[in-house]
Amino acid sequence: MFAPLVTTVRESVRYRGKEGHLSWVLHRLTGLGLVLFMVAHIFGMGMVAFNPPLHDAMIELYKTPLFSIGELFLAFSLVFHAINGTRIAILELKPELWNQQQKATRLSIGITLVLALPLMGIMAYKSISHFMGAGH
């Protein structure tokens, strides 16, 4: 069950690349994070039919500041994983572009930052406003 995480940690410590290494580690970690989110989400939503009080308790837990911070990581993970996955797919479909891998990796990181940072800023602003009283 923990084999993908162990592999990610072991290989990220062992390999010392540049953008490709960072991209590989982030792709693995964001993918694992998204899978964990999906499992928790499906479980939580499934509880509405099987255990409504547990579902309600989980919804209240999701409204806490800690989970708001987690949502920021989730937003970044989703954007990065989608953009980097697209980069990987393009390189796999067009092997002649592999000699441009460093440029493609930098481009995907740049696109991720351009898309994710404003999104995360808006989300953080709304969470801070909510928890500081303006959202009530």
Q: How would you describe this protein?
A:
The chain is mainly alpha-helical and 136 residues long. It has one domain (3-131): 3 helical TM bundles of succinate and fumarate reductases, CATH 1.20.1300. The protein has five helices and no strands. It has helices at 3-14, 19-50, 52-62, 65-93, 101-131. α1 packs antiparallel against α2 (19-50), α2 (19-50) crosses α4 (65-93) and α4 packs antiparallel against α5 (101-131). The longest helix has 32 residues, at 19-50. The chain is globular, with a radius of gyration of 18 Å.
Order of helices and strands: HHHHH
- Tell me the CATH topology: 3 helical TM bundles of succinate and fumarate reductases
Shape: globular
Q: State the total count of DSSP E strands.
A: 0
CATH architecture: Up-down Bundle
Poorly predicted parts: none
Structural class: mainly alpha
The structural domain count equals 1
Number of helices: 5
Biggest sheet record:
none
Identify the CATH homologous superfamily: Fumarate reductase/succinate dehydrogenase, transmembrane subunit
Overall average residue pLDDT: 89
CATH C-level class? Mainly Alpha
Radius of gyration: 18 Å
CA(first)-CA(last) distance: 41 Å
Percent of residues in helical segments? over 70%
How do the strands and helices of this protein lay out in sequence?
Blueprint: H1 3-14, H2 19-50, H3 52-62, H4 65-93, H5 101-131
Q: How do you describe this structure in short?
A:
This protein has 136 residues and is mostly helical.
